[in-house]
């Protein structure tokens, strides 16, 4: 593979860093973020779910039905995704959804403050 083509392929694979954020601190200037929150609701037909952390709420667009399979209301997840701004705020298009159900309810506020 010519060196220039290899460089282009490598550059396309490189992603923006996902910065850990509290929901209230996500801005339209953010490209890729990671948030931890409690699941408020799940719409498995439209692949959408809502989460909250102590600072606010966020709508997450899941990539597919499979990614919602093991999630349930009240569970804790970490979502890494792309910020999608719109007029009244933003949503998050999930790239990765991690189940944090083993995270202690007592430790969640402490973890939130560390972020």
Description:
The protein has 115 residues and is an alpha/beta fold. The protein has a single domain, classed as OB fold (Dihydrolipoamide Acetyltransferase, E2P), CATH 2.40.50.140. It contains two helices and six strands. A five-stranded mixed beta barrel has the order 2-3-4-6-5. Strand 2 and strand 3 form a beta hairpin. The longest helix is centred in the first third of the chain and has 11 residues. It starts with a helix and ends with a helix.
Short descriptors:
OB fold (Dihydrolipoamide Acetyltransferase, E2P); five-stranded mixed beta barrel; alpha/beta; 6 strands; 115 residues
Task: Summarize, please.
The chain has helices spanning 3-13, 108-114, and strands at residues 19-20, 32-43, 48-53, 56-61, 76-86, 89-99.
SSE layout:
Elements: H1 3-13, E1 19-20, E2 32-43, E3 48-53, E4 56-61, E5 76-86, E6 89-99, H2 108-114
Parallel strand pairs: 1-2, 4-6
Antiparallel strand pairs: 2-3, 2-5, 3-4, 5-6
């Amino acid at each position: 593979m010519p060196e220039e083509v290899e460089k282009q392929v490598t550059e396309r694979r490189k992603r923006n860093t996902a910065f850990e954020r509290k929901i209230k601190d996500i801005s339209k200037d953010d490209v890729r973020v990671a948030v931890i929150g409690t699941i408020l609701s799940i719409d498995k037909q439209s692949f959408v779910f809502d989460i909250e952390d102590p600072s606010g709420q966020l709508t997450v667009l899941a990539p597919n039905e499979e990614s919602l399979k093991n999630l349930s209301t009240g569970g804790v997840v970490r979502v890494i995704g792309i910020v999608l701004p719109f007029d009244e705020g933003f949503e998050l298009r999930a790239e990765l959804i991690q189940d944090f159900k083993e995270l202690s309810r007592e430790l969640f506020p402490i973890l939130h403050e560390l972020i």
